[in-house]
Amino acid sequence: MDNVKYLLPETDIPTAWYNIAADVPPAPAVLHPGTMKPIGPADLAPLFPMAVIEQEVSTDRWIPIPEEVRDIYRQWRPTPLYRARRLEQFLGTPAHIYYKNEGVSPAGSHKPNTAIAQAYYNKREGVKRIITETGAGQWGSSLSFAGALFGLEILVYMVKVSYGQKPYRRGLMETWGGRVISSPSDTTACGRAILARDPNCSGSLGIAISEAVEVAAQDPDAKYALGSVLNHVMLHQTVIGQEALKQLELANDYPDIVIGCSGGGSNFAGIAFPFLGKKLRGERDVRIIAVEPASCPSLTKGKYAYDFGDTAHLTPLVKMHTLGSTFVPEGIHAGGLRYHGMAPLVSHVTNLGHVEPRAYHQNPCFEAGVTFARTEGILPAPESTHAIRAAIDEALRCKREGRAQTILFNLSGHGHFDVPAYQDYRAGKLIDHEYSHEEVAMALSGLPSVS
Ligand SMILES: *Cc1c(COP(=O)(O)O)cnc(C)c1O
User: Fold this and answer.
1) pTM to 2 decimal places
2) Does domain 4-10+66-108+232-444 have CATH number 3.40.50.850?
């Protein structure tokens, strides 16, 4: 049997991030929440360092990765690419299945790829502390890790339901020196307003973002950081797909299909955009599949419209696939996929017809996750099981059609902190909630009107 693991030397860590904005027509402008006019860099300056703002609006195809960032990437990058031979054999498929394992980072997911870059630019511009939010805790722990390396204070607003349910993620953030506050909290005006209306509010990402933005905007020594959705985050994650391109060259193969799970869209963009770029430049065709939970179906059931990124409407308006900023998804275990919107860049290329969006319920995803654990040995994060489900379904289609296609998916993280979710799955406790068209219409009725 051929070697199943494709490793690259450290010298093959990419030297530039790939910016897909160079290869598509311009995306719709970002609007100021007060004036509804396009925003400029000065509007974002209270929240982000200038280098990050420049990346947010850049249309350069390649943006150099600072040596200091590459030095830290070296600790776990290049990440391994595997050929899933045992999974292929178990399925009896002629398809070739490859996966990129982003779970080998210190925080256990792809998120440090951008956390390190954002912490670096903040430090360079004299910022003392970074305020952020976290759902299941993956982003908060990645930024806490980055803050520890750069000597930055990290303050994390953690969605209340996860704060209670995921004590180990909280412990990890605190071990790296992050400070964690349960959201909604009484430390912000918007948190106090929400608690006054509903003292038992279990929180949401949209609320936690509002709290973090409010605090960061008022503190001259602080900035805000977001772990997904924004253009610069998509950009930083493209190290994943660029490495995969080289590794597939080693394997003498090229994907017919590239798959990623999609919450805010960053790990999906990270694996898919370098391949999509080749397609857009007429070099090589490929099918791209984005997978989301059926209970938070922004790409498959949401509307492509201007919306706010947060509940209190402090953020700019971006055009994206959205379920409405007041939408609070069911408490599924794939916490990282519970966001009401989708990255504007992912929405843009989907709207241009370059992405096939797909939604799955959590039970078939956990089933795929267990199959993966029992064949490949790695326990996947609940978010990643969505990509695995799609990869398995495509491999089974190949089997029915007798076609030996090549499938690549991103394993966005490991599931070592999510063992209770697997126990609930085995105990039959997971509910498959279908988000109905009536509910979608209701949540969307509150969209801001933009002429
Ligand atoms: C945060 C997270 C996701 C979802 O975020 P994206 O920005 O859509 O990638 C997916 N998988 C894991 C493991 C995560 O931590």
Assistant:
1) 0.97
2) no
